[in-house]
Every structure is written in C-alpha cells, then in structure tokens.
Amino acid sequence: MSRIISALRCPILHMPISILIIRTSSLGDVVYASAVLHDIRQALPDAQIDWVAEEAFTAVPQLAGARRVIPFALRRWRRRWYDPQNWRELAAFRRTLRETHYDVVIDLNEQVKSALIARSAFGVRHGFDRASIREPLACLLYQATHAVPRNLHFVERCRRLTAAALHYTAEGAPCWQWTWEAPALSNVLLPSPDAPYVMLLHATSRDDKLWPEECWRRLIRYCRERGLLTLLPWGNAKEQARSERLANGYDNARVLPKASLPELGMLLKNARWTVGVDTGLTHWSAALSTPTVAIFTATSPRRLGVGIQGAHAIDLGEVGALPSVDAALTAIDTLMNASVKSVNENSEAPHRQHERGDI
Length: 359
Prior knowledge:
Layout: E1 3-6, E2 18-22, H1 27-33, H2 35-43, E3 48-54, H3 59-63, E4 68-72, H4 74-77, H5 84-97, E5 101-107, H6 112-120, E6 122-128, E7 144-146, H7 154-166, E8 168-171, E9 197-201, H8 213-225, E10 229-232, H9 237-247, E11 253-255, H10 261-270, E12 274-277, H11 280-287, E13 292-296, H12 301-304, E14 313-317, H13 325-356
Parallel strand pairs: 2-3, 2-5, 3-4, 5-6, 6-7, 9-10, 9-12, 10-11, 12-13, 13-14
Antiparallel strand pairs: 1-8
C-alpha cells in the first residue's frame, strides 16, 4: 500500500483544496495516472478533485474517486473540425472548465494540447519541467514546473509530479481505491454468474504489440483442461474477427458482445486471472488487483509494465523479445499458487491467533 508523508504545504493553499487533474488519454495512461487520486486522498482527505479525460475514458477516474470528470472530445472533434456543432461543444467544454476556481491545476499529459486546457482553467498551473516533459513548448503555459526523471515508470512520474505540486511525498507501490456501482451484465455471454472465467486481452491498437494467434489458442486449450471459461473482448470489427477466429472450435471460449468500459471493468475485477498484451485493459486488470500477466513484444515493461503494482502482476517480454506460451503458463501457475497460499494463510490466521490466546 502507498505510504503518503504530508509535508509543509504552501501557505496560499487552504482546506479543502480544489484540484484539477488533466490526463486525457489513452486508457492505460488514464488508469495509471488515476493512482494519484488515492495518494491525494491520503495526504489531503478533504480535497475536491476534478479530472479532464477523453469522453471514452471518463469512467476510469470517476470509478477511481474523482469528484467530477469533465469529458474532452478532441478525437471526435478533429475528425470533423469544420462542423459547427463541434465548435459549440468545445465552447461548452471551456465554460464547464471555468465554472470552478481551482487552487491547483496539474497537467499529467505532457503535451501542448493539455497545457492549453490547463491555461483555460482558473488555477495555478503545474507541469513537468523542460528536461522532463515530452513536448517542452508546453512548459511556457505552466506557472510552476517540476523535475521528474524521465526513466521512471509512467505511474511513478505521475505520482511524483502530483506530489511535488501539492507538497507531499508519495512512497510505496501505487494504489487505487475503486468505487463500483455494479453495471448490469445481462448482455454478456456468461453461462451463470458463478462460472469461473478468465479474460484474454489479445486486442491492441498497434500490430507490433500483438501476440501470435496460436499462442492464444494454446491458452484457451489450457483453460479448457481446467474447466475455465475464456472471455474474448474486442473494440472494433478487426478485433472482433480475431476474437471469433480464436474462439472457433473451442466450447469454453466466448466472444463478448460490445461492452461498455464499466462492464469490462467489472468483468476484469471478477476474473480468475487475465492475460493481455500491452493495452489499457491489461493495465486496468492489474490496477483492479486481478492476477494479471502482461505480454510485451514492442514496448518495454520498465516504463509501462504491470509488475510495479505488486506480486499479483507479472510482466513478460521486452522490445523485440516475444515471450513464449510456456513462460505465460508458468507465470499463471505462479500467480495462482500465490493466490491459494494467501487464501490459506488468511483462513488459518484466526486459528493460530486462538491457539496463542490472541483472540
């Protein structure tokens, strides 16, 4: 669990402090960045925290504890930039942004576009300094900048910047405190609510991050031998077709219908375990404390891996180093054995305490 050490706060700040955090995309980055919500709650329990995120990802900071999430639709707006309706929506977004006078505005996005969002809000603007940020020009729009090593894991960079802006120190592993209002899952192909299942997250936006389809089929056969249902989500027609190819011929494989982000989150939360490529849902699975194996083929787990979250998450592979199915199966067995051991220890603890006279 994170250890938050409060430090001397800037005298201009009052309680409760109001904070705006900007991290618009992508899904995995928003998941990782939302770890700062738990840190802030530990250091500043009365803080009022709003968040700006792309409209497709607003569920994540909302479930992670943000008071209000302001949707930003740049991905949709720029496809039809000439549409007057888009300009009206942009103006409405800016009005919403300026409804609150924030004490602190923190830009975790490292881009000029997000720095412009920060500039439109009322509040002291904080961001990474020129040596730390992806787009140095953005620093011209901040009122305070902070040095954060670029070689750190992404989640730690977000935590350090936020801690510097709010004058506390965050230590320990990142933590999330999810607030779930269980969505209806009636449209999801589960044979029964109690059926054990796993999530196989084969889809990603980049082809070089894919794992070969035969590797996924071996996992499906492994699950069939153990009586586990395998769920295959998708996000577009190409991914749906791949899910259907993978499920073909396996009675334990189900291609999910189109599902909302909260529905997918609930499925990830209740899965026996997850295996996924370097994609947002894989990062979210680990952040939900589900035993997770992340497959890396074209990106490095040193900056994006799930292993930073604890013993329930394992990273396999590296840039140009395709992990084998056997390595994945070994990782799954390791996670499951650790989970069984933890359950047994927890169930035996009261008996041991009773024998010692502790209860």
